[in-house]
Amino acid sequence: MKHLNPTQLGVLRDLLLLRESQLAAEIAAVLALRQTHQDQGREVDAGVEDLETALGFAEAVRDQIELDAIHAALGRMDRGTFGRCLSCGVAIPIERLRVQPYAAFCHVCQARSETHAAHGPIAP
């Protein structure tokens, strides 16, 4: 973390904690909305209800994945490894961390990972 000064770390921690709070509220809202729809006993086409359920679930899963990444970043801060690529160990530029404070990989390793994921496993 030597490439990040205490002020930068404080700002990034605040960003992570703010986003953590926002995501927790969004997840709670999705769950509450789903419960409200069940409690109302409204009559809705089954297809529409299935779609609403699937969309709400997808939003909650997406938010939970981001929340997990935030918790991992906060853990790296506590351990003193925040701001270093988990793959190659290079310092992640502060500009990248300002945009995505939970970034775990440098731009090169992230791109490499996304390329491999998009093309699937490489055949022997």
Provide a descriptive summary of the structure in words.
The chain is mainly α. The protein has a single domain (6-119), classed as DksA, coiled-coil domain (Four Helix Bundle (Hemerythrin (Met), subunit A)). Helix content is 71%, strand content 0%. The chain has four helices and no strands. α1 runs antiparallel to α2 (46-79). The longest helix is centred in the N-terminal third of the chain and has 35 residues, at 6-40. The protein is flat, with a radius of gyration of 19 Å. The chain starts with 5 loop residues before the first helix and ends in a 5-residue tail after the last helix.
What would a concise description of this structure say?
By secondary structure, the protein is mainly α. Helices cover 71% and strands 0% of the residues. The protein has one domain (6-119): DksA, coiled-coil domain (Four Helix Bundle (Hemerythrin (Met), subunit A), Up-down Bundle).
CATH architecture: Up-down Bundle
Give start-end ranges of low-pLDDT stretches: none
Radius of gyration, in angstroms, nearest whole number: 19 Å
**Overall 3D form:** flat
Helix % is over 70%
The CATH superfamily label reads: DksA, coiled-coil domain
Structural class: mainly alpha
What's the CATH class label?
Mainly Alpha
The count of helical stretches stands at 4
Quaternary organisation? single chain
Q: SSE order, as H and E?
A: HHHH
Number of strands: 0
Tell me the domain tally: 1
Rounded average pLDDT: 86
Keywords:
single chain, 124 residues, mainly alpha, Four Helix Bundle (Hemerythrin (Met), subunit A), 4 helices, 0% strand
